[in-house]
Amino acid sequence: MHALYYYPGNASLLPHMVLREIGAPFELRLVDRTKEAQKSAEYLRLNPNGRIPVLVDGDLVLFEAAAITLHLADRHPGSGIAPPPGTPERAHFYKWMVHLTNTPQAEYRAWFYPWEHVTDRAMADTVKQAAGERLHHMFGVIAGQLGKGPWLLGERFSAADLFLFMLVRWGREMPHPPRERPEIAAHASRVLKRPAVQATLDAEELKPPIF
């Protein structure tokens, strides 16, 4: 059985949704950020970076939400959460997974924690503003790719759509939230209707507005 270390709404939301989509048995283990549990000695033995999530799969301990998702796709090939290996569709799946983790997800770090990017905390607001502008542009590019939809891979749903949904949710309180893009809002609405996504949101007690 898989064990997912999570905190509601964090990057653990992606593998949590994936686990429910594939129907694999798993256990949720709360890492209470309000008590800095992600910095505890016990948790740091699992992820020395002190970040959430971690997946334990037998003897395997894995961190990074994108890596966990790719592992689960490989571990459960019949789940339909990713196209078959070796196909052009699988290559595009990798493209989206890498893009989402390297580009908008990484940029959110500057948006949520701007003081980490300056030596003078008085400059943190300018870092946050610039990150917001870059994110707005990034979601504009993604919206253009969604024009043919309904999913990132065209007619085929995949874990990359869950990834995008999580990132759209994170931006819900930005001055220009991703949902302002009609293509992004329509995509998020489609993902939100999936039973596995609803079950995940209920389990994490995430309340509206979802995105």
Protein model, in words:
Helices cover 49% and strands 9% of the residues. It has 211 residues and is of the alpha+beta class. It folds into two domains: 78 residues, Glutaredoxin (3-Layer(aba) Sandwich), CATH 3.40.30.10; 107 residues, Glutathione S-transferase Yfyf (Class Pi), Chain A, domain 2. Helix 1 packs antiparallel against helix 7 and helix 4 runs parallel beside helix 7. The two termini are 31 Å apart. The model has no long low-confidence stretch (mean pLDDT 97).
Strand order of the largest sheet: 2-1-3-4
**Annotated CATH topology of the largest domain:** Glutathione S-transferase Yfyf (Class Pi), Chain A, domain 2
State the total count of DSSP E strands: 4
Q: In CATH's first tier, which class of the largest domain applies?
A: Mainly Alpha
Regions with little confidence, pLDDT below 50 for 5+ residues: none
Global outline: globular
Q: Major beta sheet, specifics?
A: 4 strands, mixed
Distance between the termini: 31 Å
Number of domains: 2
Count of individual helical segments: 9
SSE ordering: EHEHEEHHHHHHH
Radius of gyration: 17 Å
Secondary-structure-derived class: alpha+beta
Helix content: 40-55%
Proportion of residues in β-strands: 5-15%
Average pLDDT, rounded to a whole number, is 97
CATH architecture of the largest domain: Up-down Bundle
